[in-house]
Amino acid sequence: MRGAKITAIGTYTPPGRLTNQDLEKIVETTDEWILGRTGICNRFIAAPGVATSDLATAAAKQLLERYQVDPLTIDAISLHGLPGAKQHRRPQGVGL
Prior knowledge:
Layout: E1 16-19, H1 20-26, H2 31-38, E2 42-45, H3 52-67, E3 78-80, E4 93-95
Antiparallel strand pairs: 1-2, 3-4
């Protein structure tokens, strides 16, 4: 796809949240230990039964609304997720 360019980006963050303090209740760790080694203080987590494609659909809808994009003008979509998001054992980066 010669001459391809990214003209818009859509994102979606699921409402579920897991903090380091939540993890302290589940495993033997502390907020200080996690934060000091990873820089992470919380994670956003999709609800059970919510698939990567559901999150991608929400991101795509946000993009279409924000940028006033006609879906028929889109030639390609690149979907990238973070480790931990699983759906049908497929890779997290997928060209659609």
